[in-house]
Design goal:
Layout lengths: L10 H5 L7 E3 L2 H10 L2 E7 L4 H11 L2 H10 E7 L4 H15 L6 E5 L5 E5 L6 H5 L18
Parallel strand pairs: 1-3, 2-3
Antiparallel strand pairs: 2-4, 4-5
């Protein structure tokens, strides 16, 4: 079953069209849906030639359990940084300010009005633990101040 990326022209977005995650391209439809349903956004940015983007897709976005959490609790937006460098720059700046590092895949969890409040790079293999609201780990810190996710 294809998601909302099926009609996109970007090779990177097309690569994710059959993920079990209900991906949306960046745009009014996804942003309006997040506001209407009062759901957080997951904004995931990458590009076709990115090795770690493929790793994260394989380990997280093709995982049906992770997809169930994402689809239940979030509106998920996939962005091709080569087609939308404007969006990439905004979120890369946010990630660099929050984590003191940058790269791809770049992932931000945002409020429905797109204000960033959690960001990171690759979460392969542990994304489900980071984003499950009932797990209570979203944004929590360890005793030394490091984020759990």
């Amino acid at each position: 079953m294809a998601n909302h990326l099926q009609n996109e022209s970007s090779p990177y977005l097309k690569q994710h069209q059959h993920n079990p995650v209900d991906w949306y391209p960046w745009g009014d439809e996804a942003l309006s849906k997040a506001k209407a349903e009062n759901k957080l956004l997951i904004v995931s940015i990458g590009y076709s030639a990115c090795h770690w983007c493929h790793v994260m897709e394989r380990e997280s976005f093709e995982n049906k359990e992770v997809a169930q959490v994402m689809n239940r609790h979030y509106i998920s937006i996939k962005v091709d940084r080569e087609e939308r460098p404007d969006i990439d720059q905004i979120y890369m700046t946010a990630v660099q300010l929050m984590t003191n590092s940058g790269g791809w895949p770049l992932n931000c969890i945002c409020l429905p009005d797109v204000d960033r409040f959690m960001a990171g790079l690759i979460f392969a293999g542990r994304l489900g633990k980071c984003i499950e609201p009932s797990a209570g780990t979203l944004g929590k810190r360890t005793g030394n101040g490091n984020r759990i996710c």
